[in-house]
Amino acid sequence: MKKLLLSMAALPLVIGGLSVSASADGINILDNIKLKGQIRPRFESVDDGKATTANASAYTVRTKLTATANLLGVDGLSASIGMISVNNLGSHEYNWNGTAYNDGTKLYSKVVDPQQAMISNAEINYSVDKTTVHAGRSQINLDNQRFIGTVGWRQFERSYDTVFVANNSIKNLSVLVAWVYGFQGVIAGPTADTNSVLVHAAYKVMPELKVTAYDYMIAGAHDTYGIALTGKVKTDMAKLSYRAEYALQKDSTMEIHNSNGKADASYYNLDLGANVNGILAGVNYEFLSGSTGTDGKTNFNPMLGTNHKFNGWADVFYVGNSGPLGGLKDFNVRLGYTAKGLGKLLAVYHTFTADKTMGGLDDLGSEFDAVYTNKIPGVNNLTGLLKYADYSKGTVAGYTNDIQKIWVGLDYKFATK
User: Fold this and answer.
1) For the domain with range 2-415, which CATH number is right: 2.40.160.10, 3.40.50.620, 2.60.120.280, 2.120.10.30?
2) Intervals of the chain under pLDDT 50
3) Distance set, CA 33 to CA 61, 87, 118, 417 (Å)
4) Which helix (H) or strand (E) holds 345?
5) Which end of the chain is more exposed for a tag (fewer CB within 10 A), N or C?
6) What is the distance between the terminal CA atoms of the chain, rounded to a whole angstrom?
């Protein structure tokens, strides 16, 4: 309740301004009100390969609406209020956290899109001289969202309750320091209440090189700190992109409920991509260290990341937001094509192995993924999606079921000018 009250500090002001043009002594309390929103209907089918569950079919619609306005006539001062709602349209043939339907004999497979609504944004921002001070509830996505993200793929995404300062007054340098006091929506971590600190800095050395350093101090869990080198290189033949990243997880600096998380794990990610006249190709190797369970170490756990983007779209490896105990080695290649009017088609193939053998085994399976997206002709800001994930089982316990998932969806976004 405390974090909700803190995040909603701007709520009465914004709601009042939506209905009337309020002013005091000639000063507008709210002006330049803008709305933006999203309507995203989606069908998801899941066959998790378990004899104990029935195939799931989930029809859901995400609705988002956010209002932003200048506040009190002060240059750079603004407030926002927003909501997100997910409705399953009476579709009960799937299982989500907290509510499980069955076909009369067994539970349905899991689709983590609960029918639920929440205040997704309740924030005040003040920007001056390339510095922004923020307080309240909003969405935070840092870098490629591997460690800090909103899990926007899920219909009911995550919001962060934060106070942060962001500055880019030095040319090519951006710095953010945030105190996180709560998570809402897709919860991933020791608790929805927290006392965490995020530190992030990025410096663009040249167009071909950006250096990013970070320390994400997640209360009661771990500190994740690391460095990433990224860039884009244009040649006569192709547009190239790369990523080289290394990170460590160590004992938690921040505490919550008098507990201090213990951690000892490592991570690296190597990626090279190319675009040759619309033909997309790439190769990637991602390593998340593991534990035998008796070596005093922990497995690397990106608990606040948008993990659907990584290690296969079947979401095999982050059930319970912990990842495989033995760690994960993901070697994957991708191939696709994109062109104006034709949309984007991308296919990815993964092979998965464990860092530490579990019972003498390290085969975590393989996966084939494919996605096609394109703008719908005749309707501005409407995009269609077809997506498929096919996971083939391995030999390590817990990863011995084939899994298939299919998505069909539309995404409509709108905004007032």
Assistant:
1) 2.40.160.10
2) 1, 4-6, 8-22, 188-190
3) 26, 27, 21, 9
4) strand 343-358
5) C
6) 35
